[in-house]
Input
Amino acid sequence: MSRQVDIDIRVPNQTRYLGMIGKIGESLAHTLASYDGDREELAYHLNLVLTEALANAICHANACDPSKEVKVSISASDHELTIRVYDHGQGFNIKQLAKVKVKETDEGGRGVQIIFKLMDRVRYLKKGPGHVLEMTKLLH
Amino acid sequence: MQLNITEQGEIIKIEIQEERMDAHNSGDLKEQMLQLFDEGKCNLIIDLSAVRFVDSSGLGALVSGFKNASAREGSLKLCSLQPQVRSMFELTRLHRVFEIFASVEEALESY
Output
């Protein structure tokens, strides 16, 4: 019996949808059939990673243009969970951004670093006219 | 963002009445704090008891308030963090920057 879960979501390019998408991540953490780790922690982390990645796509890559839309896909198997967030931007060097030293009193710069801390594999790839941020978490 | 602001002498308490602090609503808190600073009100307690989720934008708004209060010889203190919110401060090491208290009463007593 297949236990693959695939969720595809398209929302307008507006930050009002951050909470809704984050909650989908939380619900998935509580629903996954085979996960035997701390579900509350996984739920918070998926909410957070989705929020950070989506906010980045909406506010930076898509320049807060409300006429655009953002696509998010989540795929989960027994072994790993992958989130993909698609944007229409020019792209950026994510590995370089992750290495920038954020001072304790800096107001920004923590979003990408949080994603790298919480996920096991992070890639930012050219896809069609834009890019996709692909983030994978191993589930055991 | 729903905020309940009360004054106790020279101390301003801001109760965040939202479950989430994220890129959608954190700018409101930042603006509200800047308005208070402009009025010369620079000693703030931020009550986070209702907040269940905070992202990097929410943390950034609090850092902004902290820096602006400090620059005006005031202070910004936090209280009543839920465990997951507390873990965000630890993940980003911001627990070393802010004074964090278990309750509003303890934060008030620290002044």
The interface with chain A takes residues 20, 22-24, 53, 55-57, 59-61, 63-64, 66-67, 84, 87-88, 91-94, 96-97 of chain B (CB under 8 Å). The beta strands of chain B are 3-8, 11-16, 20-21, 43-47, 53-54, 75-79, 99-101.
